[in-house]
């Protein structure tokens, strides 16, 4: 029996037929774009070949009879659908060549996605704020791609990366002979973005003199190339981003107040990764899948301690740091599952311990005790609950609280969604 829904498939098959085995293996290998979940008889796990097939081709599995595991199966189906749907989504995500991906199911990110859809319908200036590494340029590109300007250029300028002596000519362009070495006319970035979108990254680092020119452009919609005093009208939408507090910069006289208000007609504040809940694990798994083709195909995912480390770490470098850690782990791992040590997170977590509040420390200890007890009793919830001195209902509630959703309750083989 096979049932398919988008990118998720449930497979309940007869493994006892030798003639059918090779056909099944070939079938699952050919349809690896589907997140397969197996429903099997417990005694089938004694078959080494079946265990290998499950490990290499399946997202997870459940043993019959399902009984109380129906709800857990529904949860796993939701997780599988979410991850595989995100990987195959084209209309609502940018290309795979981008450094970041718009991945998230947290309330904070769903709100950001909603803001993007609304902001894309207008032509007003947008100011994107957030810590370094959160993906501000990705948000800017998403706004552009969903706007009426999408057929036209998206031009990005890092205001903090260009020397003060060059940024004026880079933005506004110059005429031949405007200065020594100007052998021919050059269009500036603003002019190059005509009819499209101009992304001014790290706008807070823009020199005060250039801020005045930028203000004039936003007010009048015109620019003047160096060496030419004739104003030229440029139709372009401006999207700016910064990782500094511009309001504080205004108070300190480092940023023009009038320019600040011109840029921040619409504002999107991107949350740091540490405030995005389960998105940390979701992103880690997403980028693991993205970079998997760069490796030998033996890697299957993350160990439980790696996931615990990913969820517990503060991620000061945000999504950019997570990408680097995942790629490092994939290179350094000598096993099929990436460990916290492979991610170089184990030592960093120890250094973070004093920063935990008492409630956080209790929560970590509670989650660890539940996880270890479940492992000891092969994920038999009734026996684990008895050992912990709580009712089965209470244990289910605690498992839900700590996102131990029972995906392994019937899985002594333990694919761990690798």
TrEMBL record:
Residue ranges occupied by any Sigma-54 factor interaction domain in the UniProt entry: 102-331
Domain of life: Bacteria
Gene3D superfamilies named among the record's database cross-references: 1.10.8.60, Homeodomain-like, P-loop containing nucleotide triphosphate hydrolases
Pfam families: AAA_lid_14 (PF25601), HTH_8 (PF02954), Sigma54_activat (PF00158), VpsR (PF20161)
Segments crossing the lipid bilayer: none
The UniProt record lists the keyword Hydrolase: no
Keywords: ATP-binding, Nucleotide-binding, Transcription, Transcription regulation
InterPro entries, A to Z: AAA+_ATPase, AAA_lid_NorR, Homeodomain-like_sf, HTH_Fis, P-loop_NTPase, Sigma_54_int, Sigma_54_int_dom_ATP-bd_1, Sigma_54_int_dom_CS
Metal-binding found in the keyword field: no
Entry-linked SMART domains: AAA
PROSITE patterns found in the cross-reference section: SIGMA54_INTERACT_1 (PS00675), SIGMA54_INTERACT_3 (PS00688), SIGMA54_INTERACT_4 (PS50045)
Record protein name field: Sigma-54 factor interaction domain-containing protein
């Amino acid at each position: 029996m096979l049932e398919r829904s988008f990118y998720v498939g449930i497979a309940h098959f007869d493994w006892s037929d030798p003639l059918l085995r090779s056909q099944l293996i070939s079938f699952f290998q050919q349809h690896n774009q589907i997140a397969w979940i197996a429903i099997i008889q417990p005694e089938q796990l004694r078959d080494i070949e079946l265990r290998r097939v499950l490990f290499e081709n399946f997202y997870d599995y459940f043993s019959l009879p399902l009984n109380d595991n129906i709800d857990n199966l529904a949860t796993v189906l939701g997780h599988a659908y979410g991850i595989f749907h995100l990987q195959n989504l084209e209309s609502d995500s940018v290309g795979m060549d981008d450094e970041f991906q718009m991945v998230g199911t947290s309330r904070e990110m769903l709100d950001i996605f909603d803001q993007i859809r609304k902001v894309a319908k207008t032509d007003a200036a947008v100011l994107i704020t957030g810590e370094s590494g959160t993906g501000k340029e990705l948000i800017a590109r998403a706004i552009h791609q969903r706007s009426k300007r999408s057929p036209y250029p998206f031009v990005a300028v890092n205001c903090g990366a260009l020397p003060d002596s060059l940024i004026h000519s880079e933005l506004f362009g110059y005429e031949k002979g405007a200065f020594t070495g100007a052998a021919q006319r050059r269009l500036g970035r603003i002019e190059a973005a005509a009819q499209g979108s101009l992304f001014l990254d790290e706008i807070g680092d823009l020199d005060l003199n250039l801020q005045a020119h930028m203000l004039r452009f936003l007010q009048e919609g015109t620019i003047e190339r160096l060496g030419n005093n004739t104003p030229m009208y440029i139709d372009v939408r401006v999207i700016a981003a910064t990782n500094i507090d511009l309001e504080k910069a205004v108070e300190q006289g480092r940023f023009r107040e009038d320019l600040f208000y011109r840029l921040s007609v619409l504002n999107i504040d991107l949350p740091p990764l540490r405030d995005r809940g389960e998105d940390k694990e979701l992103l880690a798994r997403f980028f693991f899948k993205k970079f998997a083709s760069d490796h030998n195909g033996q890697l299957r995912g993350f160990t439980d301690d790696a996931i615990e480390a990913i969820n517990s770490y503060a991620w000061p470098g945000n999504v950019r740091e997570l990408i680097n850690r995942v790629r490092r782990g994939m290179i350094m791992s000598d096993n099929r599952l990436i460990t916290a040590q492979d991610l170089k997170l184990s030592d960093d977590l120890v250094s973070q311990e004093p920063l935990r509040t008492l409630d956080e420390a209790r929560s970590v200890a509670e989650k660890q005790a539940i996880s270890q007890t479940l492992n000891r009793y092969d994920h038999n919830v009734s026996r684990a609950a008895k050992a912990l001195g709580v009712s089965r209902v209470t244990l289910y509630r605690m498992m839900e609280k700590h996102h131990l959703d029972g995906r392994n309750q019937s899985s002594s083989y333990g694919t761990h969604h690798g």
